[in-house]
Amino acid sequence: MYAFTHHSATSIADAVKSVGEGKYLAGGHTLVPTMKQRLAMPGNIVDLNKVAELKGVSDNGGVLTVKAMTRHYEVENSPVVQKAIPGLAKLAGGIGDPQVRHRGTMGGSVANNDPAADYPAAVLALNATIVTDRRRIAADDYFKGLFTTALEDSELITAIEFPHADSFSYAKFRNPASLYAMVGVAIAKKGGAVRVAVTGAGSDGVFRWKEAEDKLAANFTAAALDGLAVSPSRVNGDLHGSAEYRAHLIGVMAKRAMGA
Ligand SMILES: Cc1cc2nc3c(=O)[nH]c(=O)nc-3n(C[C@H](O)[C@H](O)[C@H](O)COP(=O)(O)OP(=O)(O)OC[C@H]3O[C@@H](n4cnc5c(N)ncnc54)[C@H](O)[C@@H]3O)c2cc1C
To answer: Most Cβ neighbours (<10 Å): which of 89, 94, 133, 252?
Structure first.
């Protein structure tokens, strides 16, 4: 590791004031290995772990709010999350392994926007709002590509707001080595509207599968997806699986998310 300055922030205002051209440290599960490999070399680290106002979950009966420094383990086990959006608690319980879930944070995951991460699919399917120190960003305007988001330099995610849905489910085919999604499909229904978000596969990261949304809005059953396929041309292939394999998996995971 190279030399850098470390500031343990005590409040949101302190964190934003202190970061300059540096980076926020949440769980460190992505940032620290990136620094060790010199893929990023920020000279200033602002640690969010002692910022109490960035922790916890709450629900107002219509919107579930998860603050940025809430660990995956807390999302998984929170009675508030389990009652408001049980599928989100289940999704959190499928992230990595217990060590990862006790350290990784929702804010870190959503800021990082790894193309194989699980939360981006939930954020997009549930039409969540990303709340930052300076504005509110709709999910449809937030994800901009691989590891790329609408966040500006030094912009801090403070919370994610998830509107309740009539139903929300997520099915993931795990890479057995990394535990990330080879493909994950999240499906949310609210009234007559259905949103389907796919992670792990898109060449531009998480994306909405509009054709599946239309089919499910007309007929909310797994059978409605029969014969529907994503073109491999918009899907990533790598040493873990070809584009054709992942494209096929999207259909399979979508049906599993529908309970098939
Ligand atoms: C072995 C392993 C397995 C994993 N498996 C999975 C998996 O199955 N599914 C999955 O989804 N993820 C998985 N992860 C990812 C992990 O769960 C974390 O979500 C991820 O590493 C980032 O979260 P973090 O809190 O550690 O963020 P950090 O590593 O601390 O930060 C990541 C990036 O986000 C920025 N950042 C952090 N917080 C904020 C904020 N509040 N506002 C703005 N920017 C911020 C940082 O500056 C940095 O650039 C895995 C990780 C490991 C190491």
So the answer is: 89
Region(s) of the chain under CATH 3.30.465.10: 5-163
For a pLDDT cut of 70, what percent of the chain falls above it? 100
Q: Which residue among 8, 30, 151 has the greatest number of ligand 1 atoms within 8 angstroms of its CB, and so is best to mutate?
A: 30
In words, the CATH class of domain 167-257 is: alpha beta
Q: Which atom of ligand 1 is nearest to the CA of 26?
A: 30
Closest C-alpha residue for ligand 1 atom 39 = 108
Q: What is the pLDDT of residue 1?
A: 83
Report the distance separating Cα 2 and Cα 148, nearest Å: 25
Cα 130 off chain centre by: 11
Ligand 1 centroid vs 30 CA: distance in angstroms? 5
Does the beta carbon of 25 lie inside 6 Å of ligand 1?
yes
CB of 111 sitting under 6 A from ligand 1: yes
Q: Which CATH architecture has domain 5-163?
A: 2-Layer Sandwich (3.30)
For 131, phi then psi, to 5°, come to -100, 130
For a pocket test of ligand 1, which of 49, 75, 112 has the largest count of ligand atoms closer than 8 A to its C-beta? 112
Q: Where in the chain is the domain with CATH 3.30.390.50?
A: 167-257
What is the per-residue pLDDT across 242-256, written as a single tens digit (0 to 9) for each?
A: 999 999 999 999 999
pTM of the model: 0.97
- Alpha-carbon span 247 to 55, nearest angstrom: 37
Give the model confidence (pLDDT) of 97-149 as tens digits. Answer: 999 999 999 999 999 999 999 999 999 999 999 999 999 999 999 999 999 99
Summarize pLDDT for 158-168 with one digit per residue, the tens: 999 999 999 99
Q: How many CA atoms lie within 13 A of 160 on its CB side?
A: 27
